[in-house]
Amino acid sequence: xxxxxxxxxxxxxxxxxxxxxxxxxxxxxxxxxxxxxxxxxxxxxxxxxxxxxxxxxxxxxxxxxxxxxxxxxxxxxxxxxxxxxxxxxxxxxxxxxxxxxxxxxxxxxxxxxxxxxxxxxxxxxxxxxxxxxxxxxxxxxxxxxxxxxxxxxxxxxxxxxxxxxxxxxxxxxxxxxxxxxxxxxxxxxxxxxxxxxxxxxxxxxxxxxxxxxxxxxxxxxxxxxxxxxxxxxxxxxxxxxxxxxxxxxxxxxxxxxxxxxxxxxxxxxxxxxxxxxxxxxxxxxxxxxxxxxxxxxxxxxxxxxxxxxxxxxxxxxxxxxxxxxxxxxxxxxxxxxxxxxxxxxxxxxxxxxxxxxxxxxxxxxxxxxxxxxxxxxxxxxxxxxxxxxxxxxxxxxxxxxxxxxxxxxxxxxxxxxxxxxxxxxxxxxxx
Length: 431
Fold this sequence. Notes:
By secondary structure, the chain is an alpha+beta fold. It folds into 3 domains: 2-76; 126-280, no CATH class; 284-429, Ribbon (Umud Fragment, subunit A). The protein has helices at 8-30, 36-54, 59-76, 85-106, 139-149, 214-223, 226-238, 349-356, 401-404; strands at residues 108-112, 126-129, 152-157, 162-168, 176-183, 187-198, 201-208, 243-248, 256-268, 273-280, 284-288, 302-306, 318-325, 330-334, 337-340, 343-344, 381-382, 387-391, 407-408, 412-421, 428-429. Strands 1, 11, 12, 13, 18, 19, 20 and 21 form an 8-stranded antiparallel sheet that branches. The longest helix is centred in the first third of the chain and has 23 residues, at 8-30. The chain starts with 7 loop residues before the first helix and ends with a strand.
C-alpha cells in the first residue's frame, strides 16, 4: 500500500526493473532464433536502460530508454512479449495451482471427516430428522443451513398411498446396495441406495457411502428409537412375518446379503414424506503436515495418516484417528479404560472423558467381534518398531487399529489443526 506514496522516480525505477526482467526473459528464450544484428539491438537497448538505472537517472530519462526498448521487444519477443490476455491468465492460474498444491502437500492439507468414528471430538456426516421434529424449513432457512452447516435436504415422497415396508439385515441395519454416483454432478463416487416399498411400489433414496446415520433416522421415524425397532423386528421374526430375500452388494460385485422385509406399521398418503431429513456435512479441518517432520507424534494427538500400506483397509485413502500407541508401548483395554504401559492412558482430555464416559464419550471397547485381532479382551499388545497404533474416540463404532492393525511410520501425514467448517460450536482449533 506504500506504493501510493512513492515518488515518481521510485515508481519509474520499479518499472524499469520490470522491463529489464522482460528483456532478459526474451534473451534467454529466443537468442538462438535471433540474427546477430537483432541480438545486438536487444542487448544494446537493455544495457542502456540498465546503465541509467545504476546511475540513478531521473524518471524522464528512464522513460526515454524504456520507450526505446519497448518496440525492440515487440519486434523480437515472439510469444514472450507482448503477452496475450490468455497467456497471462494461464500463467496466473498455473502459478496459483502450483502454490495451492505445494501448500496442500507440504504445509496445510484440507481434510473432511466422513464418518463418526471420532465422535464427539470430530463430527462426520449426521442427520437432522425433520419429520420427527415436525419441521420443514423454508427456502431462506434452508439456504442459511446449507451455507452454515452444509445441510442438504433429503425428502422421500410416497409413490402411492398404503403401508410402508423395507428390508433389513439380521443385525437391524436397513438393506442397501452400492451404486455409482456423482458428487457435485461431476466427481465419480459411490452411493448407498436404500429402497422403501409402499404397497409394492418402490421409493429409492441415494446417500453417500460414508453416511451412517440413515438407520437412526429410520428407527426414530417409525419406532421412536433403536430399542423400539429391535422389539418390533424381534416380534415380527417370532410371528414368522419376515419375508427373506437377497439384496445385491452392487458396484461390480456378484455377492448378495440375506435381508428380511419388515412392515413398518405406518401408512402414508401418496406424495407425503416417508422420510425427511437434512444431511449435515462432516467437520472440515486443516491438517498440519509440517510438525511431524521435526518432532515425533505424541500420544493423545489427533492423527492423520495414509492407508496405502495397511492391507486390511484395501484402498488408498486418508484416515483420522487418535494416536494411542508409539513404538514399544504396551496397550490393554479394560473397558471403559485404555491402559498404556500398565497405567491409564494420558495425554489428551478425551482419554479422561472416555474413562469416565462423560460429555458423550462412550469409553473404550475391547475387540470381541470376529475379525478384530488387536486388543481383544485380556490381550496386552506391544506396538512394533516403526509402527503406530490409532483408535477412534467413538470406540464402539470405530473401525480402527483393533481391526486393521498398525500404521507404518512412513505413512504418517500430520495432526488436525483447525476446524474451519461448518460454523458450529466446534469451529476453531482442533484437539
